From TrEMBL, chains A, B:
Keywords annotated in UniProt: DNA-binding, Transcription, Transcription regulation
Recorded GO MF terms: DNA binding
Protein name: LacI family DNA-binding transcriptional regulator
HTH lacI-type domain boundaries: 2-56
Cited PROSITE patterns: HTH_LACI_1, HTH_LACI_2
InterPro entries membership: HTH_LacI, LacI/GalR-like_sensor, Lambda_DNA-bd_dom_sf, Peripla_BP_I
Pfam families associated with the record: LacI, Peripla_BP_3
PANTHER family: HTH-TYPE TRANSCRIPTIONAL REGULATOR GALS, LACI-RELATED TRANSCRIPTIONAL REPRESSOR
Source species: Microbacterium dauci
Length: 334, 334
DNA sequence: TTGTAAGCGTTATCAA
DNA sequence: TTGATAACGCTTACAA
């Protein structure tokens, strides 16, 4: 591999001059510039990132911390991160924090010693510990989760979004709406969503009905079972994740209920999973890729301030008007 | 951030000694070792990866090149890569090559200047171009794709796997089995799979029936439509990707056919998508995570030789015996 | 068992 | 407009 000295020698200038040309630092004639560029091309010279990073005390990497790398939501955010990073000439370093964020410290240390420009943390909280490890040089920014001003984040207003989703179901004439919530470990995103649901239901004077899964597919059927046991005639299910929403659709159909004719299902997040069921899952969308992009731009431009993104209700085939209630026997008695 | 000199000064030894202790290079007393370790802990010293990499001419990073970051198959492989890398103290650098591998060169160059220990390329071919850019120092290893001995890879025997899948469908009594194939751009994995299908069908003297999608969900319904048009009474569909398989199940049900009672559906890859439909998709499984792990171990241990992994048929709810043929009118005529 | 010193490939400072 | 030089933090001969 050619070094900057090789190029310098080849052109007959000093390494410093070559460096200036490469980095666009003023201080060279148009002539030398051309000759340097020619030599760079001819020798196939690539600046050594490690040496440069050592000298400048920073390198062109963005760290990413996801709870699980094969998670659909995280994948979509990462997709945005990658494209933004690439557009700025940065590369992405990937770390899996684990469900309890147990690997976060070691990855953070690693990112720090690589002199990463910043780290985006996907849908898990930035703890004081993490901040302390990262230190002043390494800005952290959370995506798809927030906690007031405790840490900088790019997220939607989960409470409002869940409120809007519930409202829509209510508007469609549903009253018995079951909530498939996530587990305690992700309270920062689940609690506000639950509040949004509770709020809308209270406003409409409708009875609330909550069962808890863990946001993953397999947790939904049993939770749905419990919902159905408590409210056999429920006409809508609001799942706080698309995986649970997809599972709800499938489980409902397995139990002989039609979706959306008998019961409507609404999901959350708009991950690709929502399009992999039939009928396709209506869902409360977060602009995940855009959030990923903006996170790296924020990190790189030094404007790592929190921002709230617009959520959006996407209605696909899984939601419809509530079925007109079957005539109740009692009332029909003369 | 503390440097190695700070630690040295703190202990009252030379930087060299500290370095030796840290790297376990023989040449220090038990006593100094303890004192150095204490100082390291006290100062919170972390060796600078960049400086170390510059000096040793290599760094603890593994590059990953995926066609798309948010792809389910790639995600699963990456999951294995991450865990193997972490177990060896390596970090993962992520690159998205794009469908036509258009970004592969630039990422490869980047990985090279970071002095990565190796690169794993997920389900796309390693071209001569890529090899040339990587040079001798940067080993490349493909996963979930292969091409004889043209490049080193970890993959299943796609032809045999598709053959086995088709055989199983045949054993279940199916004869009219439609194939939902992928597109030309991924021929290295699709062609052998198609051959496997053709081979099994020919052996059984059954008519072949192929329509092409692009491996993604949305491409399947139209392709399935064409299949159904050509063979309205087909009793099984073999999809060469789980997304297409999932889509086939949903589309079949939408058209009023029961799965698996009327038509069986078999998928390919065993990505998480296969479990997100109802009935759950039977599929030909590749050990994706394990392949990812083994790829990094191979890269790191310098044994980057091709290896064929065992595929496995996973039967879930989407496959069953062929329906007994409805009595054909003609034959029933006396 | 330990220390000295050189050098990895850059860039920044200073002088020309 | 250019060049010499030092320094970034580390490892590794080589010397003691």
């Amino acid at each position: 591999m050619a070094t900057i000295r090789d190029v310098a020698r080849h052109v007959g200038v000093s390494p410093a001059t070559v460096s200036r040309v490469i980095n666009g630092v003023p201080g060279f004639s148009a002539d030398t510039r051309e000759r340097v560029e020619a030599a760079v091309a001819e020798l196939g010279y690539e600046p050594d990132t490690l040496a440069r990073g050592l000298r400048t005390m920073q390198s062109a990497v963005i760290g990413v911390l996801a709870t699980a790398v094969s998670d659909a939501l995280a994948s979509q955010v990462m997709s945005g991160i990658e494209s933004a990073a690439r557009s700025r000439g940065y590369t992405v370093m990937l770390g899996r924090a684990g469900l309890g964020a147990e690997h976060a410290p070691s990855y953070l240390r690693s990112f720090k010693t690589y002199r990463a420009a910043g780290v985006v943390v996907i849908s898990s909280a930035i703890t004081g510990d993490m901040r302390r490890i990262a230190g002043a040089r390494l800005p952290l920014m959370a995506v798809a989760i927030r906690n007031g001003d405790v840490f900088p984040s790019l997220a939607i207003d989960d409470e409002q979004a869940a409120y809007d989703g519930t409202r829509r179901l209510l508007e469609l004439g549903h009253r018995e709406i079951g909530l498939l919530a996530g587990d305690e470990s992700s309270m920062l995103v689940n609690a506000p969503r639950e509040r949004g649901y509770q709020h809308a239901m209270a406003e409409a004077d409708a009875p609330t009905l909550v069962e808890r899964g863990n946001s993953l597919y397999d947790s939904a059927p049993p939770a749905l079972g419990r919902l159905l046991e408590r409210a056999p005639r429920l006409s809508a299910v609001f799942a706080l994740s698309d995986e649970m929403g997809a599972a709800a659709i499938n489980e409902l159909q397995r139990r002989g209920r039609r979706v959306p004719e008998d019961v409507s299902v609404l999901g959350f997040d708009n991950t690709r999973t929502s399009q992999h069921v039939h009928p396709a899952l209506s869902t409360v969308a977060q602009p995940l890729e855009r959030m990923g992009e903006q996170a790296v731009f924020g990190l790189l431009d030094g404007t790592w301030r929190s921002r709230i993104f617009e959520h959006r209700l996407i209605e696909r085939g899984s939601t419809a008007s509530a079925p007109s209630p079957a005539p109740s026997r009692k009332r029909n008695l003369p």
